[in-house]
Amino acid sequence: MATTKGRSTGGGMTVREAGKKGGDTVKAKYGAEFYEAIGRKGGEATKEKYGPTFYEEIGHKGGQKVKRFIEEGKRT
């Protein structure tokens, strides 16, 4: 089915709307703690796979990117 501006031409919902609806349903069924547990498990798995210095590296990269955005914004 073709889409126009994120909506299906048949009047359905956008992918974003469907994702929000699904997320709201899961939150209502399992509670916010469910998402906290998933995040914790994912963080532990990432730490085991890449080591604790991984977080330092991605934090530094993110900080550098923000710094570049700020500098670009000041120039415009």
Whole-number mean pLDDT: 87
Largest sheet, described in full?
A: 2 strands, antiparallel
Number of helices: 3
Oligomer: single chain
Segments where pLDDT lies below 50 for 5+ residues? none
Walk me through what this model shows.
The chain is built from 3 helices and 2 strands. The protein has helices spanning 15-30, 32-50, 53-75, and strands spanning 3-4, 7-8. Strands 1-2 form a two-stranded antiparallel sheet.
List the helices and strands and how they pair.
Layout: E1 3-4, E2 7-8, H1 15-30, H2 32-50, H3 53-75
Antiparallel strand pairs: 1-2
Q: Would you kindly provide a brief summary of this structure?
A:
With 76 residues, the protein is mainly alpha-helical.
Observed structural traits:
76 residues, 5% strand, 2 strands, 3 helices, mainly alpha, two-stranded antiparallel sheet
